[in-house]
Amino acid sequence: MFEKKVNIYNVFELRCKTTCYFGVGAIEKMKDISEYLKNNNMKKVIVITDPVAYKVTGAWDVVTKYFKEYGIKYVLYDKVTPNPTVEQIDEATKLGKEFGAKAVLGIGGGSPIDTAKSVAVLLEYDGKTGSELYEGKFVPTKAKPIIAINTTHGTGTEVDRFAVASILEKEYKPAIAYDCIYPLFAIDDPKLMLTLPYKQTLYTSIDALNHITEAATTLSRNPYSILLAKETVRLIATYLPQALSNPNDLNARYWLLYASAIAGISFDNGLLHFTHALEHPLSAVKPDLAHGLGLAMLLPAVVKEIYPSVADILAEVYEPIVPGLKGNPGEAEAIAKGIENWLFNMGVTEKLSDIGFNEGHVDKLTELAMTTPSLGLLLSQAPIKAEREVIKRIYETSLRRM
């Protein structure tokens, strides 16, 4: 495997729309970023994070050291929760406006970085709210500069143009996608993942797996999204078991983080469809549900539905997890069960019925998937027609193990 010939301590620039500093020790690039902020009249920054990650990872010590060295003033918002809400976005935006923030720094996984992206937009639009942004009431074309320090290997949000937030009173969890919310700089340092708990290690990696399953099979799929998908699955199949058995394995963390980043680039190019569109209602109704767990519970059923139309692609992409597939449409049941068995072997043993959903919830979930703002765009990209009966069948199949 070529991975053995890669020096994981060599910090390189993963160039996409974002300049992402990648590798062990990349957090030290905060020195260069702080110098950039100073030289470009961005000496006031709002930092967006959750109550834990920015401290336990060690990222905060490095950030504050270089902020102090370069005279960068900051205000801290550390109330972001998993499945962040528009209320949190509005609260952080108010803090940032009062402070006069010229840039936004997100530290954490998808939730803090997505919140940072949202705040960066609203800082440029007086009188607009998080709800208006996520319900599509206006289309932003500008945002304050965004810096993302990533602490999980799953979302890819540090290198893409997507963000997600929940509108709790409507049980909506829409997504946005705008060019203006690509981070200017991102940091992907595997050292920051060493404190990632077992279940977050598992769930975030499965998030990346879902990103490429969808990006490789949408109507917008392309050779680039499929190529990145194949490599993502290979890396996750190889290194996720290693990271789960030894959380301090820095090499495993490096390659899972790389898989997450290229999965983010894959769906930035190929978009998403069923799994994310159907998971968002789950975690909108149950905000404590981990996004990656929701995706894991849906993935086998989604693959079963779409496999006949994209069998040749998925057989090749999933070879490391479900070997021996020929790409025949009749293998739909086999690949679905193979993926479910792999998930169970990794430690995801829950299905929807285990977390409180039953047949009585299916119609409501189906309606939310079809009516939540932005999810219709994802469903329109599915390789088969996203009819109500198909969506219902995916939810029903996901209630229990196949």
Question: Radius of gyration, rounded?
Answer: 20 Å
Percent range for β-strand residues: 5-15%
CATH superfamily (homologous) name of the largest domain: Dehydroquinate synthase-like - alpha domain
3D shape: globular
Report how far the terminal alpha carbons are from each other. Answer: 34 Å
**Order of secondary-structure elements:** EEHEHHEHEHHEEEEHHHHHHHHH
What is the residue-averaged pLDDT?
97
Which blocks of ≥5 consecutive residues have pLDDT under 50?
none
Helical fraction: 40-55%
CATH class call of the largest domain:
Mainly Alpha
- Count of alpha/pi helices: 15
Main β-sheet description: 7 strands, mixed
- Main sheet: strand order: 1-2-9-6-5-3-4
InterPro entries: ADH_Fe/GldA, ADH_Fe_C, ADH_Fe_CS, AdhA-like, BDH-like
Keywords: Oxidoreductase
Organism: Fervidobacterium gondwanense DSM 13020
Domain Fe-containing alcohol dehydrogenase-like C-terminal: 201-398
Protein architecture, described:
- The protein has helices at 30-39, 53-56, 59-69, 86-99, 110-122, 130-134, 198-215, 223-245, 250-270, 274-285, 291-317, 332-346, 362-371, 375-380, 388-397, and strands spanning 12-15, 19-22, 44-49, 73-77, 103-108, 146-150, 162-164, 175-177, 185-188.
- With 402 residues, the protein is α/β, with parallel strands linked by helices.
- It has 2 domains: 2-192, 3-Layer(aba) Sandwich (Rossmann fold), CATH 3.40.50; 198-397, Dehydroquinate synthase-like, alpha domain.
- α10 (274-285) packs across α13 and α13 (362-371) packs across α15.
- The longest helix has 27 residues, at 291-317.
- It is globular, with a radius of gyration of 20 Å.
- The chain starts with 11 loop residues before the first strand and ends in a 5-residue tail after the last helix.
